[in-house]
Design brief:
five-stranded parallel β-sheet; three-stranded parallel β-sheet; binds NADP nicotinamide-adenine-dinucleotide phosphate; oxidoreductase activity, acting on NAD(P)H, oxygen as acceptor; NADP; pinoresinol reductase activity
Length: 313
Protein backbone atom coordinates (compact mmCIF):
# COMPACT_ATOMS: atom_id res chain seq x y z
CA UNK A 1 0.00 0.00 0.00
CA UNK A 2 1.26 3.46 -0.84
CA UNK A 3 2.08 5.52 2.22
CA UNK A 4 -0.12 8.51 2.93
CA UNK A 5 1.10 12.02 2.41
CA UNK A 6 1.10 13.86 5.71
CA UNK A 7 0.70 17.51 6.70
CA UNK A 8 2.00 18.40 10.15
CA UNK A 9 0.61 21.58 11.68
CA UNK A 10 2.69 22.93 14.57
CA UNK A 11 5.73 21.18 13.15
CA UNK A 12 8.30 23.26 15.02
CA UNK A 13 6.72 22.63 18.42
CA UNK A 14 7.86 20.40 21.26
CA UNK A 15 5.93 17.40 19.97
CA UNK A 16 5.44 18.61 16.39
CA UNK A 17 9.13 18.47 15.50
CA UNK A 18 9.21 14.85 16.63
CA UNK A 19 6.18 14.08 14.49
CA UNK A 20 7.97 15.53 11.48
CA UNK A 21 11.04 13.36 12.16
CA UNK A 22 8.96 10.23 12.69
CA UNK A 23 6.92 10.87 9.55
CA UNK A 24 10.08 11.23 7.46
CA UNK A 25 11.68 8.21 9.15
CA UNK A 26 8.65 6.06 8.34
CA UNK A 27 8.84 7.06 4.69
CA UNK A 28 5.88 9.41 4.38
CA UNK A 29 5.92 12.34 2.03
CA UNK A 30 5.83 15.01 4.71
CA UNK A 31 4.52 18.57 4.51
CA UNK A 32 4.90 21.15 7.28
CA UNK A 33 2.70 24.21 7.66
CA UNK A 34 4.99 27.20 7.53
CA UNK A 35 3.23 30.21 9.02
CA UNK A 36 4.09 33.78 7.95
CA UNK A 37 3.57 34.76 11.62
CA UNK A 38 6.92 33.10 12.28
CA UNK A 39 8.42 36.56 11.68
CA UNK A 40 12.09 36.64 12.65
CA UNK A 41 12.00 33.59 14.90
CA UNK A 42 15.34 32.37 13.66
CA UNK A 43 15.25 29.08 15.62
CA UNK A 44 11.98 28.05 13.97
CA UNK A 45 13.15 29.10 10.52
CA UNK A 46 16.39 27.15 10.91
CA UNK A 47 14.47 24.10 12.10
CA UNK A 48 12.13 24.29 9.11
CA UNK A 49 15.08 24.60 6.74
CA UNK A 50 16.73 21.56 8.28
CA UNK A 51 13.49 19.59 7.85
CA UNK A 52 13.45 20.71 4.22
CA UNK A 53 16.99 19.40 3.81
CA UNK A 54 15.79 16.08 5.20
CA UNK A 55 13.12 15.90 2.52
CA UNK A 56 10.08 17.66 4.00
CA UNK A 57 8.05 20.18 2.00
CA UNK A 58 7.25 23.54 3.56
CA UNK A 59 3.76 24.83 2.79
CA UNK A 60 2.91 28.42 3.52
CA UNK A 61 -0.37 28.84 5.39
CA UNK A 62 -1.92 30.84 8.18
CA UNK A 63 -4.79 30.45 10.60
CA UNK A 64 -5.77 33.98 9.56
CA UNK A 65 -6.15 32.90 5.93
CA UNK A 66 -8.70 30.10 5.59
CA UNK A 67 -8.03 29.53 1.89
CA UNK A 68 -4.34 28.94 2.64
CA UNK A 69 -5.32 26.21 5.09
CA UNK A 70 -7.64 24.62 2.52
CA UNK A 71 -4.84 24.71 -0.08
CA UNK A 72 -2.37 23.09 2.33
CA UNK A 73 -4.80 20.35 3.33
CA UNK A 74 -5.56 19.56 -0.32
CA UNK A 75 -1.93 18.46 -0.82
CA UNK A 76 -2.13 15.49 1.55
CA UNK A 77 -4.08 12.46 2.73
CA UNK A 78 -3.51 12.85 6.46
CA UNK A 79 -3.39 15.94 8.67
CA UNK A 80 -1.77 15.83 12.10
CA UNK A 81 -2.08 18.87 14.32
CA UNK A 82 0.30 19.43 17.24
CA UNK A 83 -0.74 22.97 18.06
CA UNK A 84 0.10 24.18 21.54
CA UNK A 85 -2.01 23.11 24.49
CA UNK A 86 0.03 23.70 27.63
CA UNK A 87 -0.99 26.91 29.37
CA UNK A 88 2.44 27.70 30.80
CA UNK A 89 3.67 27.81 27.15
CA UNK A 90 0.63 28.61 25.00
CA UNK A 91 -2.87 27.20 24.55
CA UNK A 92 -4.37 27.39 21.05
CA UNK A 93 -6.49 24.25 20.94
CA UNK A 94 -9.65 25.98 19.67
CA UNK A 95 -7.81 27.45 16.67
CA UNK A 96 -8.11 23.94 15.30
CA UNK A 97 -11.77 24.63 14.52
CA UNK A 98 -10.47 26.56 11.52
CA UNK A 99 -8.44 23.54 10.47
CA UNK A 100 -11.51 21.32 10.83
CA UNK A 101 -13.42 23.72 8.56
CA UNK A 102 -10.56 23.63 6.05
CA UNK A 103 -10.47 19.82 6.07
CA UNK A 104 -14.24 19.72 5.59
CA UNK A 105 -14.05 22.14 2.69
CA UNK A 106 -11.10 20.37 1.05
CA UNK A 107 -12.94 17.05 1.29
CA UNK A 108 -9.91 14.84 0.49
CA UNK A 109 -8.48 14.01 3.90
CA UNK A 110 -8.55 10.36 4.90
CA UNK A 111 -7.50 10.91 8.50
CA UNK A 112 -7.19 13.82 10.92
CA UNK A 113 -5.30 13.60 14.18
CA UNK A 114 -6.07 16.67 16.29
CA UNK A 115 -3.74 18.04 18.94
CA UNK A 116 -4.50 15.74 21.86
CA UNK A 117 -1.54 13.64 23.03
CA UNK A 118 -2.37 13.64 26.73
CA UNK A 119 -5.11 12.52 29.09
CA UNK A 120 -8.19 11.32 27.20
CA UNK A 121 -10.51 14.34 27.41
CA UNK A 122 -13.57 12.12 26.97
CA UNK A 123 -12.83 10.60 30.40
CA UNK A 124 -12.40 13.97 32.14
CA UNK A 125 -15.95 15.28 32.43
CA UNK A 126 -15.44 15.50 36.19
CA UNK A 127 -12.15 17.46 35.96
CA UNK A 128 -11.62 20.40 38.30
CA UNK A 129 -11.53 24.06 37.34
CA UNK A 130 -9.53 25.65 35.89
CA UNK A 131 -7.55 22.68 34.51
CA UNK A 132 -10.61 21.24 32.81
CA UNK A 133 -10.33 23.91 30.09
CA UNK A 134 -7.79 21.73 28.27
CA UNK A 135 -10.16 18.76 28.19
CA UNK A 136 -13.23 20.87 27.41
CA UNK A 137 -11.52 22.58 24.47
CA UNK A 138 -10.23 19.27 23.10
CA UNK A 139 -13.80 17.91 23.31
CA UNK A 140 -15.12 20.94 21.38
CA UNK A 141 -12.67 20.06 18.60
CA UNK A 142 -13.68 16.38 18.69
CA UNK A 143 -17.35 17.37 18.37
CA UNK A 144 -16.58 19.51 15.32
CA UNK A 145 -14.57 16.68 13.71
CA UNK A 146 -17.33 14.16 14.25
CA UNK A 147 -20.09 16.53 13.11
CA UNK A 148 -18.12 17.13 9.91
CA UNK A 149 -17.75 13.35 9.41
CA UNK A 150 -13.98 13.63 9.20
CA UNK A 151 -12.20 10.30 9.74
CA UNK A 152 -10.00 10.62 12.84
CA UNK A 153 -7.60 9.03 15.26
CA UNK A 154 -7.26 10.43 18.78
CA UNK A 155 -3.93 9.72 20.43
CA UNK A 156 -3.94 9.63 24.22
CA UNK A 157 -0.23 9.73 24.98
CA UNK A 158 -0.38 9.94 28.79
CA UNK A 159 2.55 11.78 30.48
CA UNK A 160 5.24 13.35 28.31
CA UNK A 161 8.35 11.93 29.95
CA UNK A 162 10.27 15.23 29.86
CA UNK A 163 7.69 16.98 32.04
CA UNK A 164 6.91 14.18 34.46
CA UNK A 165 10.07 12.05 34.74
CA UNK A 166 12.29 15.12 34.43
CA UNK A 167 10.84 16.45 37.68
CA UNK A 168 10.26 13.09 39.43
CA UNK A 169 6.53 13.91 39.00
CA UNK A 170 6.85 17.14 41.01
CA UNK A 171 5.03 20.04 39.35
CA UNK A 172 7.26 22.99 38.52
CA UNK A 173 10.43 20.90 38.11
CA UNK A 174 11.87 19.39 34.97
CA UNK A 175 15.31 18.36 36.22
CA UNK A 176 15.41 15.59 38.83
CA UNK A 177 16.70 16.54 42.25
CA UNK A 178 19.66 14.67 43.73
CA UNK A 179 18.62 15.62 47.28
CA UNK A 180 14.90 15.62 47.96
CA UNK A 181 11.49 15.01 46.49
CA UNK A 182 7.90 15.83 47.39
CA UNK A 183 5.65 12.81 47.05
CA UNK A 184 2.14 13.60 45.88
CA UNK A 185 0.03 11.89 48.55
CA UNK A 186 1.47 8.47 49.35
CA UNK A 187 3.27 8.44 45.96
CA UNK A 188 1.69 5.09 45.09
CA UNK A 189 -0.76 6.19 42.36
CA UNK A 190 0.24 4.72 38.99
CA UNK A 191 0.76 6.94 35.97
CA UNK A 192 2.17 6.25 32.49
CA UNK A 193 5.30 7.93 31.12
CA UNK A 194 6.13 8.01 27.42
CA UNK A 195 9.26 9.23 25.64
CA UNK A 196 8.12 12.02 23.31
CA UNK A 197 9.92 10.47 20.33
CA UNK A 198 8.05 7.22 20.99
CA UNK A 199 4.77 9.16 21.05
CA UNK A 200 5.64 10.44 17.58
CA UNK A 201 6.62 6.98 16.33
CA UNK A 202 3.39 5.38 17.54
CA UNK A 203 1.32 8.30 16.22
CA UNK A 204 2.73 7.98 12.71
CA UNK A 205 2.16 4.21 12.81
CA UNK A 206 -1.57 4.79 13.32
CA UNK A 207 -2.18 6.95 10.28
CA UNK A 208 -2.40 4.23 7.65
CA UNK A 209 -3.65 1.59 10.04
CA UNK A 210 -7.35 0.72 9.59
CA UNK A 211 -7.37 -0.59 13.18
CA UNK A 212 -6.87 3.00 14.36
CA UNK A 213 -9.57 4.54 12.16
CA UNK A 214 -12.11 6.49 14.22
CA UNK A 215 -10.55 5.17 17.41
CA UNK A 216 -8.77 6.46 20.47
CA UNK A 217 -5.28 5.01 20.69
CA UNK A 218 -3.81 4.98 24.19
CA UNK A 219 -0.03 4.72 24.52
CA UNK A 220 0.58 2.52 27.55
CA UNK A 221 4.03 0.92 27.32
CA UNK A 222 3.66 -1.81 29.97
CA UNK A 223 7.05 -1.25 31.67
CA UNK A 224 6.32 2.48 31.99
CA UNK A 225 3.20 2.19 34.15
CA UNK A 226 4.70 3.22 37.46
CA UNK A 227 3.95 5.15 40.64
CA UNK A 228 5.89 8.25 41.63
CA UNK A 229 7.65 6.17 44.32
CA UNK A 230 8.76 3.67 41.67
CA UNK A 231 10.07 6.50 39.47
CA UNK A 232 12.00 7.91 42.44
CA UNK A 233 13.43 4.44 43.22
CA UNK A 234 14.71 4.13 39.65
CA UNK A 235 16.39 7.53 39.93
CA UNK A 236 17.85 6.66 43.35
CA UNK A 237 19.33 3.48 41.90
CA UNK A 238 20.84 5.45 39.00
CA UNK A 239 22.47 8.09 41.24
CA UNK A 240 23.34 5.59 43.99
CA UNK A 241 21.73 7.69 46.70
CA UNK A 242 18.41 7.87 48.61
CA UNK A 243 16.48 11.14 48.36
CA UNK A 244 14.91 12.85 51.35
CA UNK A 245 11.13 12.40 50.97
CA UNK A 246 8.25 14.50 52.25
CA UNK A 247 4.62 14.18 51.29
CA UNK A 248 1.93 16.66 50.24
CA UNK A 249 -1.59 15.56 51.13
CA UNK A 250 -4.41 15.94 48.61
CA UNK A 251 -5.93 18.76 50.69
CA UNK A 252 -2.63 20.65 50.92
CA UNK A 253 -2.06 20.22 47.20
CA UNK A 254 -5.49 21.60 46.28
CA UNK A 255 -5.12 24.45 48.77
CA UNK A 256 -1.80 25.35 47.12
CA UNK A 257 -3.65 26.30 43.91
CA UNK A 258 -4.97 29.45 45.52
CA UNK A 259 -2.93 32.54 44.75
CA UNK A 260 -1.16 30.89 41.81
CA UNK A 261 -1.30 32.32 38.29
CA UNK A 262 -4.07 30.88 36.09
CA UNK A 263 -1.61 29.00 33.82
CA UNK A 264 0.04 27.37 36.85
CA UNK A 265 -3.35 26.41 38.28
CA UNK A 266 -4.28 24.66 35.03
CA UNK A 267 -1.09 22.59 35.19
CA UNK A 268 -1.51 21.77 38.87
CA UNK A 269 -5.02 20.47 38.26
CA UNK A 270 -3.60 18.13 35.60
CA UNK A 271 -1.01 16.83 38.09
CA UNK A 272 -3.81 16.41 40.64
CA UNK A 273 -5.85 14.18 38.34
CA UNK A 274 -2.82 12.16 37.21
CA UNK A 275 -0.96 11.76 40.49
CA UNK A 276 -3.71 11.73 43.15
CA UNK A 277 -6.77 10.49 41.28
CA UNK A 278 -4.93 8.10 38.94
CA UNK A 279 -6.96 9.22 35.91
CA UNK A 280 -4.56 7.58 33.43
CA UNK A 281 -4.73 4.09 34.88
CA UNK A 282 -8.11 3.77 36.60
CA UNK A 283 -9.92 2.36 33.55
CA UNK A 284 -9.63 -0.50 31.07
CA UNK A 285 -9.24 0.08 27.33
CA UNK A 286 -12.38 -1.36 25.77
CA UNK A 287 -10.81 -2.87 22.60
CA UNK A 288 -13.68 -1.64 20.41
CA UNK A 289 -13.34 2.09 19.78
CA UNK A 290 -10.23 2.17 21.98
CA UNK A 291 -6.93 0.36 21.37
CA UNK A 292 -3.49 0.29 22.95
CA UNK A 293 -0.44 1.30 20.89
CA UNK A 294 2.27 -1.01 22.23
CA UNK A 295 -0.09 -3.94 21.64
CA UNK A 296 -0.86 -2.80 18.06
CA UNK A 297 2.82 -2.09 17.28
CA UNK A 298 4.95 -4.56 19.29
CA UNK A 299 7.83 -3.93 16.88
CA UNK A 300 8.44 -0.50 18.47
CA UNK A 301 11.30 -0.80 20.92
CA UNK A 302 10.03 1.83 23.31
CA UNK A 303 12.20 3.71 25.79
CA UNK A 304 11.81 2.54 29.37
CA UNK A 305 11.65 4.96 32.28
CA UNK A 306 15.12 3.88 33.42
CA UNK A 307 16.62 4.50 29.98
CA UNK A 308 14.89 7.86 29.73
CA UNK A 309 16.22 8.93 33.12
CA UNK A 310 19.83 8.05 32.32
CA UNK A 311 20.03 11.25 30.26
CA UNK A 312 19.88 13.30 33.48
CA UNK A 313 22.95 11.62 35.01
N1 LIG B 1 0.68 14.57 27.93
C1 LIG B 1 1.51 15.51 28.29
O1 LIG B 1 2.24 15.40 29.28
C2 LIG B 1 1.61 16.73 27.42
C3 LIG B 1 2.63 17.65 27.64
C4 LIG B 1 2.74 18.73 26.78
C5 LIG B 1 1.84 18.89 25.71
N2 LIG B 1 0.86 17.97 25.54
C6 LIG B 1 -0.08 18.14 24.41
O2 LIG B 1 0.65 18.03 23.21
C7 LIG B 1 0.12 18.91 22.21
C8 LIG B 1 1.24 19.76 21.63
O3 LIG B 1 1.80 20.55 22.66
P1 LIG B 1 3.30 21.13 22.58
O4 LIG B 1 3.73 21.40 24.00
O5 LIG B 1 4.13 20.25 21.72
O6 LIG B 1 3.03 22.50 21.85
P2 LIG B 1 4.02 23.77 21.71
O7 LIG B 1 5.41 23.31 21.49
O8 LIG B 1 3.77 24.72 22.83
O9 LIG B 1 3.45 24.46 20.39
C9 LIG B 1 3.26 23.71 19.22
C10 LIG B 1 3.00 24.60 18.03
O10 LIG B 1 1.79 25.29 18.16
C11 LIG B 1 1.79 26.29 17.14
N3 LIG B 1 1.18 27.53 17.63
C12 LIG B 1 1.38 28.14 18.81
N4 LIG B 1 0.67 29.27 18.85
C13 LIG B 1 0.02 29.37 17.65
C14 LIG B 1 -0.86 30.33 17.07
N5 LIG B 1 -1.24 31.42 17.74
N6 LIG B 1 -1.32 30.10 15.83
C15 LIG B 1 -0.96 28.99 15.15
N7 LIG B 1 -0.11 28.06 15.64
C16 LIG B 1 0.36 28.28 16.88
C17 LIG B 1 3.26 26.55 16.76
O11 LIG B 1 3.38 26.01 15.45
P3 LIG B 1 4.43 26.48 14.35
O12 LIG B 1 5.42 25.36 14.31
O13 LIG B 1 3.61 26.60 13.13
O14 LIG B 1 5.02 27.77 14.79
C18 LIG B 1 4.00 25.71 17.78
O15 LIG B 1 5.21 25.22 17.31
C19 LIG B 1 -0.99 19.71 22.91
O16 LIG B 1 -2.25 19.15 22.59
C20 LIG B 1 -0.71 19.53 24.37
O17 LIG B 1 -1.87 19.60 25.17
C21 LIG B 1 0.73 16.90 26.34
Amino acid sequence: MEKSKVLIVGGTGYLGKRLVKASLAQGHETYILYRPEIGVDIEKVQMLLSFKEQGAHLVSGSFSDQQSLVNAVKLVDVVICAISGVHIRSHQILLQLKLVDAIKEAGNVKRFLPSEFGTDPARMEHALEPGRVTFDDKMVVRKAIQEANIPFTYVSANCFAGYFLGGLCEPGRIIPSRDSVFLLGDGNTKAIYVDEDDIATYTIKTIDDPRALNKTIYIRPPKNILSQREVVEIWEKLIGKDLHKSSISEQEFLASLEGQEYAEQVGLVHYYHVCYEGCLTNFEINGKDEREASELYPEVNYTTVEDYMRRYL
